[in-house]
Amino acid sequence: MYLKKTKQKSGRIYLSIVDTYRDKEKGYARTVTVEKVGYLDELEKDYDDPMAHFKERVEQLKEKKAEKVAPITLSFNQDDTLSVGQSNRKNFGYMILSQIYHELQIDKVLTSKQRPSKIDYNVNDIMKLLVFSRSLYPGSKKKTFENKEKFFDRHDYSLDDVYRSLSFFYKHSSLLQTKINDRIKSVYNRKTDLVYYDVTNYYFETDIHDELRKKGGVSKEHRPNPIVQMGGLFMDTKGIPITFKLFSGNTNDCLTFRPGFGRYIKSII
């Protein structure tokens, strides 16, 4: 990782922080922009020595990167005792889920999409927590965050970061579905000659309406609250989802089929 100086046609110098990584698929090293800094002449108005300042920023980012890849070690003292009500239990069985998670290459998709963003927490760590907890300890996002110490992964993010990451996941939802489906087909030999389709909806305990949350649709739980339609859920014969899409709450169930079917066709080609 280093501070890159790029001379523009105008003669101005543009600074950016870049990193290198090896593309295993293509077999050679590539560079990626970690942070866009700005034009040197403009930065000199705000910093006495912008080059020194952002070189120090590079060192900070290097330290963070090193912390993420450093091995996790556990140590204990045989004379230590637990306080009443204290629990240090860890779940080790989730490593099976972790293997599947990495076989589907969800981590690669999230990492590649986070690189050009300005997000300063690890979205992949949050996704792992949400996925593993949903499988083993279903609960709210808040409860999931409170139980994070059950897992061995790093948790250097806040509850607010967990909520913020949901927008990032939604933004890249279509790409994730496509990549996961491709991996399931190649690794687990998914069969799609027969598929199942389902529709459901979710209610929100609020009167606030927006683009998705709307009244007017038929709530599966017969509630008057705003709802969101989850349509286009196509599953294979093993019950593993292929693709899905969210619709506004006042969308009729039958109107979700054709858009979802189009996504399904694209996903299996």
Characteristics:
269 residues, alpha+beta, 3 domains, 3-stranded antiparallel sheet, 9 helices, 38% helix, 20% strand, globular, Mobile element protein
Uncertain residue ranges: none
Number of domains: 3
β-strand amount: 15-25%
Task: Please state the average pLDDT score.
Answer: 87
Overall shape: it is globular
Rounded to an integer in angstroms, the radius of gyration calculated over CA atoms is 23 Å
Share of helix among residues? 25-40%
How many β-strands, per DSSP?
A: 6
- Per DSSP, the total helix count is 9
Which structural class best describes the helix and strand composition? alpha+beta
What distance separates the N and C termini?
39 Å
Largest sheet: 3 strands, antiparallel
Strand order of the largest sheet: 1-2-3
Order of helices and strands: EEEHHHHHHHHEEEH
Description of the structure:
- By secondary structure, this protein is α+β, with helices and mostly antiparallel strands.
- The radius of gyration is 23 Å and the shape is globular.
- It contains nine helices and six strands.
- The relative contact order is 0.08.
- The strands form two sheets. It has a three-stranded antiparallel sheet. Strands 4-5-6 form a three-stranded antiparallel sheet.
